[in-house]
Amino acid sequence: MYRPKTTLEQWRILQAVVDCGGYAHAAAKLNKSQSSLNHAVAKLQNQLGVNLLEVRGRKAYLTEAGEVMLRRSRHLTQNVQELEILADSINQDWEPEITLAVDLVYPKALLYPVLRDFHPQSRGSRLRILDTVLTGTEEAITQGWADIVLSPNVPKGFLGEPIAEMQFIIVCHPQHPLAQMTAPVDPNELMHHLQLVIKDTSQTPNEKQGWLKSEQRWTVSQFDTAIDLMTQGTGFCWLPEHTVCDEINQQKLVKLDLKGSSFRKLVLWLVHPRPDSLGPGSQLLSDYLLAHRQLKHTTLNTEEEPCK
Question: Comparing C-alpha atoms, which of 106, 103, 107 is closest to residue 300?
Answer without folding.
Answer: 107
